[in-house]
Design goal:
single chain, 8 helices, alpha+beta, binds glutathione, Glutathione S-transferase Yfyf (Class Pi), Chain A, domain 2, 10% strand, Glutaredoxin, 4-stranded mixed sheet
Length: 187
Amino acid sequence: MLTLYLTPGSSSFAAHIALHEVGATFDVKKLSIVDKEHQAPDYLAVNPAGKIPALLIDGRLLTEVAAILFYLAKRYPATGLLPPEDDIEAQAQVISWMAYVASGLHPVWNKGLDLALPAFEIADERLGDSEWAVGGYSIADIHLFRLYWRLSSANDLPNGRFPNLQRHLEQMLQRPAVIRTLAAEAA
Ligand SMILES: N[C@@H](CCC(=O)N[C@@H](CS)C(=O)NCC(=O)O)C(=O)O
């Protein structure tokens, strides 16, 4: 049994998309960060760090977006959200992207454009004209999309500022799992 604790539009959006991508059966528990529900005793009993998301796997806690994405990709290998097992370098590139998103983009996206733009510039250049972050579509794309989606919806970025991230976002917005997740979180 999988249970995702989420706040619509927050980091949990990536985990929520991945659950839809893999076709898992799961429960959702919505928390309001504004109302500080993530710091309430009920949630701290689930996740003592008080951060969102949290995934319960048969009652066992898994935190950190990258770890949740990794778990889902490995548990549902037929969905191909990680490069093949024998392509160690491609798998490492997926981890590299997710580590950069978690440690390079997530801490700065809402700390002012002076900090955010250089960090996203690195991601835009790294993506270049590739369709996806690493070979085929992977969990790296889900994690990257979630941060650029957040940055671009919170700021009036000049047209063409991040052409590669923007193209990537538009591809992501066409995926049925992303459309379903957006609708579920808006409900
Ligand atoms: N490194 C964590 C970051 C989790 C995180 O900071 N989540 C935010 C929501 S986007 C949160 O819980 N904010 C509430 C708080 O920090 O009090 C991950 O990747 O899961």
